[in-house]
Amino acid sequence: xxxxxxxxxxxxxxxxxxxxxxxxxxxLTRWYCPNPAWELKVxxxxxxxxxxxVEMGPHVVRGTYLEAERPRRLAFSWKWDGTEDExxxxxxxxxxxxxxxxxxxxxxxxxxxxxxxxHGLGWEPELGRLANLLTALSAxxx
Length: 142
Prior knowledge:
The chain has helices at residues 15-23, 25-28, 113-141, and strands spanning 5-11, 40-44, 51-56, 59-69, 73-80, 88-97, 100-108.
């Protein structure tokens, strides 16, 4: 079994809008949690070496930005509070396509396939919320 998560989506927005959704705290608080019932708080200092903290209800994840190349690439470490797990790595690669923006999310460094699978289950609804947000933002601008 695989110890990484790879998810590819074509999102209905410009590359700049998708990058902003990944880097602006006020947008992250609208989608960056798999459970919409949980309160979501985000702080993000998006620059290489900058830190972020995401509070998803009772769960807190934090890390450091490793790459920030607007509007094409973002990479950051990922570590849950309260665990002894080593930090994992999330990479987001963006490219322009005819229907919007192709996003490739890769989350690597898991100790077990089960941990990777559990994170994949979390990313799926979260990325659905991202697509819905981008659709709504595009409609607002239209």
